[in-house]
Amino acid sequence: MVPAQLLLSQAVHGRGGYDSDFSDDESGEKSDQRNKRTSNEDALLIKPFQKVKPVKVADRQIAAEEWDREEARNRRFHLIAMDAYARHKKFVNDYILYYGGKKEDFQRSGASDKTDLDVVRENCRFLWKEEDTVEMNWEKRLAKKYYDKLFKEYCIADLSRYKENKFGFRWRHEKEVVSGKGQFSCGNKHCDEKEGLKSWEVNFGYIEYGEKRNALVKLRLCPQKKKKINFHHRRREVKPKKKKKRTEQNSGGAKSKKSKKKKKEKHRSKGGGQK
User: Fold this and answer.
1) Residue 188 has what DSSP assignment?
2) Cα separation of 154 and 186, whole Å?
């Protein structure tokens, strides 16, 4: 029973199936017709001024230009990714590679290099006036900013050339003010004596940028350095005036009180005589 049923099912499927002997030919004819239609439609869509795409292999010149463009894009991308120093180094190495030379020829000379301290030394002034702040570049602004941070009550002196009547003075900076240099210790550059200090006023005459100027400065010096500052002529000693003022005020007040008492007594005596 089983083989008979299998044969019957195969016969039914063979007769009533979807397969046919002419299916390939029909599909082949239909596909050709479709290809012809699409080609005709494409030909109609082509515009008269439209350039025909090259179907053949590209020419050597076109290929070389396209290669150069691609290489330029890659090179530009790598250069943009570099920092300024790496880019400069690459250019120098490429120049030496293609044109020859030595790396020593490209070394930068540091003869004209300046630090902030060099700029301040070149543009510093002992005293800044309104005339000096008219035309200010960045170098002068830096020097003026340093000058504003200095303390201008007492000076630090260089008395090494006192026999020639030549002295050097400068203002104190923050560290010297904190340590007491120039006020609670001797104001000479190479002296740290703290006993017997006295204040002196010195008329400091100096030449700055071809202009002669004067400034009255104050110093605190020990007895040994006092002789050096007064070697050629006597300087003016600055003495404290606060105590004198107080004593004068006290004495003046006592005298005024006494005079008031005398006036009152005289007035009383005159009044008593009249009675």
Assistant:
1) B
2) 11
Torsion angle of alpha carbons 217, 221, 223, 224, nearest 10°?
A: -100
How would DSSP label each residue in 223-239?
HHHHHHHTSSSPPEEE-
CA atoms of 229 and 203, how far apart (whole Å): 11
C-alpha span between 161 and 119 (Å, rounded):
27
Amino acid, res. 25: D
pLDDT tens digits for range 4-56: 455 545 544 555 444 454 444 444 555 667 666 776 666 667 666 666 666 67
**Do 150 and 171 form a contact (C-beta atoms < 8 A)?**
yes
Residue 208, C-beta contacts closer than 8 angstroms, at least 6 positions apart: 125, 126
pLDDT tens, position by position, 178-220? 999 999 999 999 899 999 999 999 999 999 998 999 999 999 9
Distance CA 236, CA 200 (A): 6
Q: Which residue has the tokens 């029909």?
A: 26
